[in-house]
Structures are given as structure tokens and as C-alpha cells.
Amino acid sequence: MHPTPARKLHSPALAVALCAALLTACEKSTQLEDIREAGELRVITRNTPTTFYQDRNGDTGLEYELAKRFAESLNLDLQMQSADTLESLYQQLGSNNGPDLAAAGLTVNAQRQDQVRFASPYLQVTPQVVYRRGDKKPRSIEDLYGQRLMVLKGSTLADELRALQAVHPELTFTESDSFEVVDLLRLVNDNEIDAAVVYSNELVVNRAFYPAVSVAFDLGAEQPMAWALQQRPDSTLLDAVNAFFAEIKADGTLDQLIERFYGHSDVLDYVGARAFAEHMQSRLPRYETFLRQAGDQYALDWRLLAAMAYQESLWDETARSATGVRGLMMLTLPTAKFVGVTNRVDPQQSIMGGARYLVWVRDQISADIPEPDRTWFALAAYNVGLGHLEDARKLTEKAGRDPNRWIDVKDFLPLLQKKQWYTQTRYGYARGSEPVHYVQNIRRYHDILQWVTQPQSESRQQSTEQYLAPGILEQLPEGI
What we know:
Elements: H1 5-26, H2 31-38, E1 40-45, E2 53-55, E3 58-60, H3 62-73, E4 77-82, H4 86-94, E5 101-102, E6 117-118, E7 123-125, E8 127-132, E9 149-152, H5 156-165, E10 174-176, H6 181-189, E11 195-199, H7 200-206, E12 213-218, E13 223-225, E14 228-229, H8 236-250, H9 253-262, H10 270-282, H11 284-298, H12 302-313, H13 333-338, H14 347-364, H15 373-384, H16 386-398, H17 406-409, H18 419-422, H19 433-452, H20 464-467, H21 472-475
Helix pairs in contact: 11-12, 11-14, 12-19, 14-15, 15-16, 15-19
């Protein structure tokens, strides 16, 4: 029996369709290939000081800097988006056509393993219970019974507190998706709650804003922090992420970024943070116009100059040291003469002279040193002198470390005050610990000034008193 004409017509078409389906199945693209085809890496994060935010220079934050470098390693554009809550972040990551990965200060969470895949860890952080200084210090879980305890909803810490309730049924806490960590710290600072559970890195970065917040005790051991990726059949993106972190760990880039964002964050103690908050409102506004003018004239961030002036004189134009340096920027007589300052206690002259001298010092430092390290070196040289800085860089190189990285050189500057080391140098003894503390303090003050000044206010030339956001002084508990 001969086949019908219809079957004759459909058999070739069916064969072609089957072949096409098989070919498509064989040639199905991987996740990484899809991303390369789209030309951009989509990353979801959180808008916090430890992850991603904007300052006058644009996007910044540790997670942003890591994501930017990863995208560049793949020759892709970077698209960052922020989630309002942790639950929303995980939901968006797991949705169809969701972001490719989450770089958001997440710790590896066993409760999320069926929802996302975690890459290799890049940072270890400690969960900590924090309380308000002056209140009775909790020293154990039992001390939290009946306390107003809060944690971020959807976080690993919330899961851990729920697990602790099995052993400590009297432990109660509130999960909130209306706040970020910075808000929890504010609530503790303002005595609106008794305690909160946060990670150590988040406390270190934000502590200067909330000086009444202190650590009660660690809630367990360190935990690994990692990026989270979509659950996909192939592991090409995961492999690329892991290879990226392996590379930046090996070449020192990761350590340098961590030092940049965390290495100077704990330099302010309670008293120092409170004094800085008060002086920022009572003294800084008197000099802000001059600082802005100097910043514009010498292409410097005026807040960096403000941070320098605070480190030098606590924003006191009449300041004078035992060695005779004077004024807001504490200029020596030879330096003042060199930069054309005729009256060191004149605030405008002092600020302009200090800015002029900082730029001159920076110009003496090799342009091959990338920013921000070149600026940190310039600050160190402003404090200790170019010769001693160069001695420390040579010691750094001799030890097999990188003389062009502040994270390495800052370990060798203090050696200049030890005879076994300074006798090997051209310029000899120096109080090498001082420039290290000097730079770290300035960086911390600068961070605070960047965070509390709103980017949109830069063009409005408003007074600092008008755009503190939020006002640090108002955050201090009453009676302190």
C-alpha cells in the first residue's frame, strides 16, 4: 500500500523539525554565553555603606568595586540594581529574567541553598549582638530574654536566632524588612530597641555614626560571605566567579579593596566619634566656603581637605603645637613660606596653603602609583616627609612586598622607629607609626563626611548644617 500524499508531504517536514530540535538541544547556550550575548552583567545588591552607594564621584562600595572588576574581566558592561529588602533580593534573583548574581554582603546560608548557589567566600565576618553603651551589658543569650531585640528579616542571622529559640524558648526577637543595618544601629543608639544582631563588618563601618552602640558578645563563630547566583543547569557563571576571586586573592587586589573600605574604619573610639560629630556642626560650617574654594582651585575633594584640617587642628584656627606649627592645617614656618602663606592663623590662607602643599607633595610621587594609593602616600608624606616615605617604600620592596600599595607600605613605615631598620635607610629615624595613624584617621573622617553629605547638595553649595543626612549630633543619646 502506498503512503498517502499527505504523509509524503509531512515526513520531510517532520524530519527537518526533529533535526532542528536535536540541533538546538545540542547547541543550547550556557549561562555565561547568554550573558556575553546580552553584553552586560546584571547584579543585584543593597544600598548600604558596606555594599553599594553613591558619593560625589559616583558609584562606590566594596561590592560595587568587586562587581565592576568582575564585569571588566568578562568585557561586559555592569548594571547594578538595589533591592529594598533581603527577601526581595532573593526573590528577584530566583525569578525568570532576574539578575545574574547578587553581590550584597550575603553570608552563606544553608536555608537558601535550594534557592540560590553561593560562590567561593571572599570575606569572613562575625555575627555580633550590639547594645547601647550605658545600659547593662548582655553577656549571654539568657541576658537577652525579655529584651527588645531586632534583626533583618530574611537574613542568615534571623535563621540563627530562630534555631536558638529551640534551646532558648524565652528568647524573643523582631524581624524587620523596613530597616537596613544602619537603621538597626540607630534604633539601638537612640534607645528605641535594646539590642540588635549585625555582622562585624557592618558595625565597624557604621560605628562612627552611632558612637553609643557597642558590642555585647559574639553570636557564634565567623561566617563566610559570598556572592549568590541563580540556580541554573550549568555552572559556567559560577566557575567564572570562582576563578575571578581566586585571581584577585592571589594578586592582592582583594586584600587591597578590603583594606580600602574596612582597613581604617575602626580608628574612631566613642569619645572621638562624639567629638567629631559635635565639631562637624559647630566648627566646620565656619570654614566650608574656604574648603570648597581650595578644592575647586586644586582639583581636590573639599571633604578630604576638611578631614585633613580636622586631623591637624580639630578645625581650630588658633591651634598651635609645642613644636611651633600653627593654624587649621598646622603649617611649619618653612612650609608656609614655600606655599606663600604669610599668616598661618588666617583660616583661608592656611587652607589654601595646605591644599597647595598637598598637591605639590602628590606631584613628587610617581604617577605610576594608582589612586587612591597615591593620595594616601601624599598624606603620609605631608606628615612624615617624602624622604621617610621613600625609605619605607624601599624597605617594602626589599621585603618582597609592593612599594606602590598603601596596604603594604603602611606595614613598613613603623619600622623607621626601630634601629635595626632605620639604620638601613637614607633618611634614618622617623616616628613611622604617626603617618600610618594620620592617614587612617583622615580616611575615616573623609568617609564620614562623604556619607553624611548628600550628592545632590554639591551643586547647591548648601551649608553643612543644612544637609547633614542624618545629623550625627541628633543621633547621640541624651545625657552623653
